[in-house]
Design goal:
The structure holds two protein chains of two kinds.
Chain A (H helix, E strand, L loop, with lengths): L4 H27 L2 H27 L6 H16 L2 H7 L14 H23 L4 H21 L1 H4 L14 H20 L1 H11 L1 H6 L4 H27 L9 H14 L4 H22 L3 E2 L2 E2 L6 H16 L19
Antiparallel strand pairs in A: 1-2
Chain B lengths: L1 E10 L2 E11 L4 E5 L6 H9 L6 E6 L2 E2 L5 H6 L2 E3 L12 H12 L6 H6 L15 H13 L5 E5 L7 H17 L3 E5 L3 H7 L2 E6 L2 E6 L1 H5 L2 H6 L3 H6 L1
Parallel strand pairs in B: 3-8, 3-9, 6-7, 7-8
Antiparallel strand pairs in B: 1-2, 1-4, 4-5, 9-10
Classes of the chains: A mainly alpha, B alpha/beta.
Chain lengths: 341, 236
């Protein structure tokens, strides 16, 4: 198999990003405090979500607002499978269908969670990919609300806003860095694959692409399912690290946060997804510190609650207004090193 | 090869195409002319599947095209270009061509066509960095990458100067010989159409009013009256 020009550059670009991610991981494990380590871990979880989001949004340029729901589906499915029976008897005493009477090993649980998420994503996707523009966006929002309501009110399975606890903590920083690197290669690989190139063509000009033989709805569905699977991986690694989950982290705030990351960095590129995740995560930490009203160079700043939400909203508004394609635009990281011809 | 039987299309009460029937032979170069609003682009859209006819049937090599979407028709060998350009601006020139290769299932880059249309040293450029004329040529090469049996060109010479138009004519002659596909060409430049095409179909008010060789068309009184005599006498 010969690689196209774009694919060769894709390998180079993914390798550069992988090196950056590994460096961040190594630095964190050497120098970070326990609190910082958790921050870095959650940044990597969000990175995988944003990369998954990029696979669908960046290539099809349709907006998805339901991604956090699929993260939740992955997390809960894995949690229900992997949690030991003794724990589940306490956590979910009224669970139906014998859900509290079995337990699987982490790998089987993760794979099963991916299958479940994949099937649900496929069934939902069939409807989503037929719509265009505003219709598709609103439909994904509806999916988010539906899934959240189920998490919230089927307390016998999901425990709602209470913590679902007792999940074995089998993931570490090392495992999440490895997973993120694999996902970088998958998402860049998809972007440069025949499917990715055809999907991007359809986003540029749907009619033109159809006239070139591109089956737009089929490609959107492929990207949608792949995207949901990647996001489910993030959910699974979230559950496997924290050991406890609840419905709240898989709702609006998280949708908004990861969307801001992707929009700021630039949804059209994998590099944009990585840049946006780290830039917003870092910026948010600074803002959270400012929120508490610290003393900076002798000046006692006032406490400003809600500053982080305002900042996040501003990032989206300003990026949309001033540079709608995000910081990276159409450029991947390796293109910064290649001379413009 | 491509046969249209009684094809009509109306938008609301407006009959854009009325009862059009014709046969396009394999390897033929057919011109489609007519005054503005005659229904030329609508006809191309109907053949490529972007529009659905109100009535009538279409077959390609005897296989009915009814109910087939645009992408299915493209895969069966009906390629086209657009009057208002539809290159993929965020992709490189090479990737624009790749899209058709991937969708049409052809393995190799159509290198000879790329050279013939002067795009060989522009493959790595983003498509929106190309000049207007080059974007038109890219659309043709992209269509050829589908390995079509028919390539429909909607005003390929629009916006080109005389020199470029002549070069385009030569390149299209080459296409017909090398790529073994029929060409179906709409253009307003009658000199270009007359020198390029074997046969010409004339559309007016959505109906076919004449069909024949360039000589027959230029002397056809119906055609002359449809054009108010001006354009045709200028060529003849």
């Amino acid at each position: 198999m010969t690689l196209t020009r774009g694919q060769k550059r894709g390998v180079a670009g993914a390798c550069i990003l992988a090196l950056i991610l590994i460096s961040i991981g190594v630095m964190a494990s050497l120098f970070a405090s326990n609190y910082q380590l958790r921050l870095v871990y959650s940044t990597f979880v969000n990175l995988i979500v944003v990369l998954g989001l990029q696979v669908f949004m960046g290539n099809s340029r349709l907006t998805n607002l339901s991604h956090s729901a699929f993260m939740g589906i992955g997390a809960y499915a894995a949690a229900i499978c992997v949690t030991p029976v003794a724990m589940k008897q306490i956590a979910l005493p009224d669970a139906p269908w014998g859900l509290n009477a079995f337990a699987l090993d982490p790998i089987t649980s993760a794979l099963l969670a991916l299958v479940i998420t994949g099937v649900i994503a496929f069934l939902v996707g069939i409807f989503i990919v037929r719509m265009t523009g505003t219709g598709a966006t609103i439909a994904t929002l509806a999916v988010l609300v539906i899934v959240h309501s189920i998490f919230l009110y089927r307390t016998d399975i999901f425990k709602g806003n209470q913590a679902f606890f007792g999940i074995p903590q089998v993931f570490s920083l090392t495992s999440i860095v490895i997973l993120a690197v694999v996902v970088v290669f998958i998402s860049r690989g998809f972007r440069e694959s025949a499917w990715g190139v055809m999907l991007r063509a359809s986003a540029d000009d749907e009619t033109g692409a159809a006239a070139m033989g591109v089956n737009v709805t089929r490609l959107r569905l492929i990207a949608w399912v792949l995207s949901s699977l990647i996001i489910a991986c993030a959910g699974i690694s979230y559950a496997f690290f924290l050991g406890t989950i609840s419905a709240r982290p898989f709702y609006f705030n998280h949708v908004f946060l990861t969307l801001a990351m992707l929009i700021f960095g630039g949804m059209r590129t994998v590099t944009g997804a990585v840049l946006g995740t780290f830039a917003i995560s870092f910026g948010l930490e600074v803002v959270r510190w400012l929120e508490t009203g610290p003393v900076v160079v002798g000046i006692d700043l006032p406490e400003v609650l809600g500053l982080s939400g305002v900042m996040l909203g501003l990032v989206i508004v300003l990026t949309m207004a001033m540079r709608p394609v995000g910081v990276m635009g159409d450029r991947e990281i390796e293109e910064l090193f290649i001379r413009k011809r | 090869m491509l046969e249209l039987t009684g094809i009509s299309k109306s938008f609301g009460g407006v009959h854009a195409v009325r009862d059009v029937s014709f046969l396009l032979e394999a390897g033929e170069v057919r011109g489609l002319i007519g005054p503005n609003g005659a229904g030329k682009s609508t006809l191309v859209n109907l053949i490529s599947g972007l529009l659905t006819p109100s009535s009538g049937t279409m077959t390609l090599n005897g296989v009915p095209l009814t109910g087939q979407s645009a992408h299915q028709r493209a895969r069966q060998g009906i390629a086209r270009t657009f009057q208002n350009l539809r290159v993929f601006p965020s992709l490189s020139v090479e990737q624009n061509i790749d899209v058709a290769r991937y969708a049409g299932g052809s393995a190799a880059l159509p290198e000879a066509a790329i050279r013939q249309f002067g795009l060989l040293d522009k493959l790595t450029l983003p498509a929106n960095a190309l000049s207007y004329g080059d974007q038109r040529r890219l659309e043709i090469v992209r269509g050829l990458a589908l390995r079509p049996r028919i390539l429909m060109l909607d005003e390929p010479a629009a916006g080109m100067n005389e020199e470029e138009t002549e070069a385009l004519g030569h390149a299209l002659k080459w296409v017909q010989q090398q790529a073994d596909c029929a060409l179906f060409v709409i253009d307003h430049d009658l000199k270009f159409i007359m020198t390029l095409c074997d046969r010409i179909t004339v559309l007016d008010m959505g109906s076919v009013i004449a069909e024949g060789t360039p000589q027959e068309i230029t002397t056809n009184p119906k055609v002359i009256s449809a054009y108010l005599g001006d354009d045709v006498s200028a060529v003849a």
